[in-house]
């Protein structure tokens, strides 16, 4: 059944082209276009209408339909918009002048305005003293004196922003936000001032002052305050205070009273680490400081051996060494906390002198101070962050060894215990060091711990980018505004294990080198040079054999070398691609754990432009290994039990959570083991996707897995239809078009997040459901890349009946942790080697022909827990992202010609009411209002058609609604029940 469904959807584009147009002439609302994907189901039915449906219920006359869309089309005319926008902008200036003038001339103009009915307009105009004449006097009198007193000034920002938004098409200006704030301010302040005025009218108060100030509250505020004070007396003040607190709580989404955090905690780390001042609208990355900085130190160790026959060994150490603390930068930033409308500002030590701040809750803050150019305030719960450019570069350079010149060391240095690096010079071999590629220094900031909300490809928020954005002609749709206050996880959530420490001693290096040279010597293989590179788990010895030595000979000695080194996990890479040397990887006696924090806090990850970056860990040369899942485009992961698969999956999920906004990414998590991924339940409303009407977002049941996979196939087909409709080749192009508002949401277009399907144990699914899961997985793997659906499939049994040929063929990127046999290694990687790994996150990544050894980063369960809590506790969507409903799941009934009124969908009546109330026969309306999947909504509309409630399918137009009002509908529903 499920399969039929998505097959049917597949045929959509073809069938649409051939579809007969129904004879019916008009649609009720031209603009209300049914989504294109609604079409395929329809074509035969238009011709062969069943007789059984209760058509008798159809009303005799059709309602006149109004082409509202056509009438209002002038609203889309840019010229009209500009006209309207400038009208509002100028009106705001006009009102400002009129209001200010009223403060001085209001009393004089009062009689003029009130006698307007009895005085000729011209005369009245001449008598008025307001700077903007009679109209100015009248408007001010109406809004201030009769209306809301001085609080009426709050009208001005609403008018101004309305005009500004229309003229400049600023998506970041929310008129409803300004409107709500202004409206509340106006009402609240006028009542408060009304209460003040009433208090001043007390018998013992100054009557002249009372008379002069009676305009303060305006008529509305005065009357309301009078009414309140007669009811609750001075309780009015308490009520007003309560209303203010409630407003601040709801409007600014205050969930904690973390005022201390706003100022104290955030200012403190700024001393230790340079911060980058950014603004919310600028989508800044917000990082927490890291105690360590990752530096790569390269010291050249080179010496001439006295013995001419001795070999050279080159030691190449790219291990991170202890961080040099970054100097405190004279940065400014900062944070303020709002309490009861007042703003407190904290600044780092060298901030500009005493900025003066004036702001009211939610209003833009103005900052004036030496060197301060601008200040932006962005509401973030009760906290506001301010940006103040300074003369200092925004990103302060951190101390790094990158600028160090490699220092040649002599043998004497090597013998010295104080030499900083472990050396590998058995028999006092001269060493040379290649200049290492140090990790680029990373910059960290700590504000509220947000990473870049825009995330996307642009993690780094750099001033130039903001300028570019400003220069753009229109400002675009921003999907992250769904959850504008979403804060990205901070690095503080992750354990800090301090700077990595060198684990390999020079004795170990020397001993290994000697044994390698000796073993090869036994087989008559002489070596021209040898070089060692120390990684976190293994050390790579690169050897250049003498001319004439056959590579295959060295490769065949793998076991012998392992035996002579008495070490497990030797891997020989002969030759190292692109290098012309032969690599021998020897596990370090003491492994070094690569903490997740150390790989996230790198420039490479922070400033990556990848769509779905995954920071896996460190390579053998200590470089952070970051890959783009969007390019992979799917990932197959294998490894025997206990070798680090689950940790690896958590690293992937955490990487994506750190870099993506909930509007840009959704996970479908399949966890047959039931316990591995359950921790991610907390982020259901932010990042998870699920089938409609299902309880749990994390799928543990095989039956549901099949439905979910089929549903993803349907989503894929739908996305392809939309892409085709939009003339785009991939998701990125499509989303770009959508963001630029070149696609009409009424035609079903929407911003499409990436979907990452994670299956934690494929073996279990293959055993229980076999082909039922294999086919959709293969189909998704073949086709889903372009439309942003990516698969990560893990298994502990990489045997051929789990990783079948069809699955393998569609997963070019594969990861293997340690497996138990060479055969397993060949099954997953098409090469041996995975059986030689040392476990605990030691892994091989194969991308096409390249195989790279990486030490997977380690993320502990409490860290994942904290991360999920951090995300999950924030405001999310009302529900998980809904995948298309798979036909036949529940709800009952079908939509075909054999529709039986007794077998209709349980939501039939609700759907009918929605359609009749809105007088719009569209599937997407049912989907939206009743939160149903597309299939079910499609079935419902079929049933409604057969019940005579909506007309037949009309191509791109919405169906005609045949029932004029709710009363007629209820009668019809009653008849159907009998
Ligand atoms: N990258 C890593 N660095 C250090 N230790 C690791 C790493 N990955 C895993 N380990 C260690 O190995 C243990 C087992 O890892 P994990 O639970 O990921 O294995 P698994 O392959 O998922 O096993 P299973 O298939 O039985 O669930 C961890 O508890 C941890 O101690």
UniProtKB/TrEMBL annotation:
Its main location: membrane. Keywords: ATP-binding, Cell cycle, Cell division, Cell membrane, Chromosome partition, DNA-binding, Membrane, Nucleotide-binding, Transmembrane, Transmembrane helix. Coiled coil: none annotated. ATP binds at residues 639-646. It holds the Pfam family FtsK_alpha. It comes from the Bacteria. Residues 23-33 have a biased composition (Low complexity). It is found in: Cell membrane. Residues 1-60 are annotated as: Disordered. Belongs to the FtsK/SpoIIIE/SftA family. This is DNA translocase FtsK 4TM domain-containing protein. It comes from Hymenobacter citatus.
């Amino acid at each position: 059944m499920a399969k039929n469904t998505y097959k049917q959807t597949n045929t959509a584009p073809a069938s649409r082209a051939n579809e007969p147009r129904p004879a019916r002439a008009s649609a009720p609302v031209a603009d209300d276009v049914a989504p294109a994907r609604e079409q395929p189901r329809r074509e035969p039915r238009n011709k062969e209408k069943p007789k059984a449906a209760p058509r008798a219920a159809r009303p005799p006359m059709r309602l006149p339909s109004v082409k509202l869309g056509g009438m209002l089309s002038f609203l889309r005319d840019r010229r009209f918009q500009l006209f309207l926008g400038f009208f509002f902008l100028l009106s705001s200036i006009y009102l400002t002048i009129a209001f200010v003038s009223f403060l001085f001339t209001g009393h004089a103009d009062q009689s003029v305005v009130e006698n307007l009915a009895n005085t000729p307009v011209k005369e009245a105009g001449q008598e008025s003293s307001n700077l903007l004449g009679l109209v100015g006097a009248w408007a001010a009198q109406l809004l201030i004196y009769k209306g809301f007193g001085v609080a009426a000034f709050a009208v001005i920002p609403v008018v101004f922003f309305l005009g500004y938004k229309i003229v400049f098409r600023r998506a970041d200006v929310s008129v409803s936000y300004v409107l709500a704030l202004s409206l509340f301010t106006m009402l609240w302040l006028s009542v408060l001032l009304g209460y003040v005025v009433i208090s001043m009218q007390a018998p013992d108060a100054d009557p002249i002052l009372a008379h002069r100030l009676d305009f303060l509250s305006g008529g509305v505020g005065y009357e309301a305050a009078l009414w309140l004070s007669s009811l609750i007396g001075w309780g009015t003040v308490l009520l007003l205070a309560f209303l203010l607190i409630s407003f601040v709580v709801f409007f600014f989404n205050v969930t904690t009273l973390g005022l201390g955090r706003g100022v104290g905690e955030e200012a403190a780390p700024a001393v230790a680490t340079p911060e980058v001042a950014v603004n919310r609208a600028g989508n800044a990355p917000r990082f927490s400081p890291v105690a360590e900085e990752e530096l790569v130190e390269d010291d050249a160790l080179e010496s001439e051996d006295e013995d001419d026959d001795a070999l050279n060994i080159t030691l190449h150490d790219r291990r991170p060494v202890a961080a040099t603390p970054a100097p405190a930068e004279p940065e400014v930033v900062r944070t303020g906390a709002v309490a009861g409308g007042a703003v407190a500002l904290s600044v780092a030590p060298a901030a500009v002198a005493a900025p003066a701040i004036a702001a009211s809750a939610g209003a833009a803050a103005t900052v004036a101070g030496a060197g301060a150019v601008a200040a932006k305030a962005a509401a973030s719960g009760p906290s506001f962050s301010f940006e103040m450019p300074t003369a200092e570069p925004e990103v302060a350079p951190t101390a790094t060894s990158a600028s160090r010149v490699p220092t040649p060391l002599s043998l004497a240095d090597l013998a010295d215990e104080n030499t900083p690096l472990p050396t590998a010079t058995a028999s006092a071999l001269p060493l040379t060091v290649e200049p290492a590629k140090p990790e680029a220094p990373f910059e960290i900031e700590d504000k509220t711990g947000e990473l870049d909300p825009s995330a996307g490809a642009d993690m780094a928020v750099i001033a130039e980018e903001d300028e570019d954005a400003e220069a753009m002609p229109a400002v675009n749709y921003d999907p992250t505004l769904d959850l504008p206050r979403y804060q990205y996880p901070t690095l503080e959530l992750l354990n800090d294990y301090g700077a990595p420490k060198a684990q390999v001693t020079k004795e170990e290096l020397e001993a290994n080198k000697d044994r390698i040279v000796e073993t090869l010597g036994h087989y008559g293989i002489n070596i021209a040079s040898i070089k060692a590179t120390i990684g976190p788990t293994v050390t790579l010895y690169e050897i250049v054999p003498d001319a004439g030595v056959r590579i295959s000979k060295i490769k065949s000695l793998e076991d012998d070398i392992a035996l002579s080194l008495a070490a497990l996990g030797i891997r020989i890479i002969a030759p190292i691609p692109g290098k012309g040397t032969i690599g021998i990887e020897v596990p370090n006696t003491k492994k070094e754990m690569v903490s997740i924090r150390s790989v996230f806090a790198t420039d490479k990850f922070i400033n990556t432009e990848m769509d779905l970056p995954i920071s896996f860990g460190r390579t053998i040369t200590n470089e952070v290994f970051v890959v783009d899942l969007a390019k992979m485009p799917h990932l197959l992961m294998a490894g025997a039990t206990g070798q680090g698969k689950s940790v690896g999956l958590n690293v992937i999920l955490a990487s994506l959570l750190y870099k993506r906004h909930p509007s840009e990414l959704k996970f479908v998590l399949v966890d047959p083991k039931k316990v591995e991924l359950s921790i991610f339940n907390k982020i259901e409303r932010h990042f998870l996707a699920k089938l409609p009407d299902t309880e749990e977002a994390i799928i543990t049941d095989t039956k549901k897995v099949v439905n979910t996979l089929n549903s993803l196939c349907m989503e894929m087909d739908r996305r392809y239809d939309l892409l085709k409709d939009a003339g785009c080749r991939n998701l990125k192009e499509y989303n770009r078009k959508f963001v630029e508002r070149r696609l009409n949401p009424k035609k079903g277009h929407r911003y499409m997040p990436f979907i990452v399907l994670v299956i934690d144990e494929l073996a279990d699914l293959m055993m229980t459901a076999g082909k039922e899961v294999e086919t959709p997985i293969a189909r998704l793997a073949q086709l889903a890349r372009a439309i942003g659906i990516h698969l990560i499939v893990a298994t502990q049994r990489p045997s051929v009946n789990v990783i079948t040929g069809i699955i393998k063929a569609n997963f070019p990127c594969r990861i293997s942790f340690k497996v138990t046999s060479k055969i397993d290694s060949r099954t997953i990687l098409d090469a041996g080697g995975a059986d030689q790994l040392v476990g605990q996150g030691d892994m091989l990544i194969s991308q096409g022909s390249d195989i790279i050894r990486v030490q997977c980063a380690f993320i502990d369960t409490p860290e994942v827990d904290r991360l999920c809590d951090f995300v999950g506790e924030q405001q999310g969507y009302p529900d998980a992202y809904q995948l298309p409903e798979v036909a036949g799941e529940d709800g009952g009934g079908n939509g075909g010609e054999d529709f039986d009124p007794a077998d209709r969908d349980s939501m039939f009546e609700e759907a009918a009411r929605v359609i009749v109330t809105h007088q719009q026969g569209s599937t997407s309306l049912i989907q939206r209002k009743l939160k149903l999947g597309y299939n079910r909504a499609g079935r419902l509309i079929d049933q409604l058609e057969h019940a005579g409630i909506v007309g037949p399918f009309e191509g791109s137009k919405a169906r005609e609604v045949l029932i004029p009002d709710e009363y007629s509908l209820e009668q019809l529903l009653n008849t159907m029940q009998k």
